[in-house]
Amino acid sequence: MIKLKKKNYPQILFVLSFLILTSALIIEYGFGYQPCNLCLIERIPYGLSIIILLLNFLLKKNQIFYSVLLMLIFSFSTIISIYHLGIEQGLFEESSICTSQNLDLITKEQVLNSLKELNISCKNVAFKIFGLSLTTYNIFASVLMFILSSKIYLLNNNNDNKK
């Protein structure tokens, strides 16, 4: 089994967050697959984790606080991803997050312009890898990121208790 040093866990989290966010952007802009609103929301934890990990690296204080914050962020990410998968599988109905349209249209031009906008449904899976939706992979990634964040917490908490 690989034994990692304490400093390696935040580095792994940073690299994974960066790769996941970059992959999502490549799939959207490079391959032309439009994300639904929940897909866009699922990107937020990775961006936040990059910011938190950079702050952690620069400030080198409150390691426990940052690790708890990361654990909360990836808990949120896991819950949102499971909810999204439930919508994809027909277990849950799409919420207003998925079908956000402006219903306060007044003029004929506004109605015609709104029809031109492409609204992606959260239940339609546009991109799969090995038969699994990106939401499914996001669940796995979020759980892994939560575990890594927990490991950072435990390592820092054990060091504080030894002092």
Question: Can you put this structure into words, describing what you see?
Answer:
- This protein is an all-alpha fold.
- It has 5 helices and 2 strands.
- Strands 1-2 form a two-stranded antiparallel ribbon.
- A hairpin with a 2-residue loop joins strand 1 and strand 2 (132-133).
- It is elongated.
Please tag this protein with its features:
163 residues; mainly alpha; Bromodomain-like; two-stranded antiparallel ribbon; 2 strands; 2% strand; elongated
Which structural category do the helix and sheet elements fall into? mainly alpha
DSSP helical segment count? 5
Q: What is the CATH third-level topology name? A: Bromodomain-like
Approximately how much beta-strand content do the residues carry? under 5%
**C-alpha-based Rg, rounded:** 19 Å
> Biggest sheet, in brief?
2 strands, antiparallel
Q: What is the rounded distance between the termini?
A: 28 Å
Low-confidence stretches: none
CATH class: Mainly Alpha
Give the domain tally. Answer: 1
- Strand tally: 2
The pLDDT mean sits at 82
Strand order of the largest sheet: 1-2
What is the H/E string?
HHHHEEH
* CATH architecture descriptor text: Up-down Bundle
CA-based shape: elongated
The residue fraction in helices comes out at 55-70%
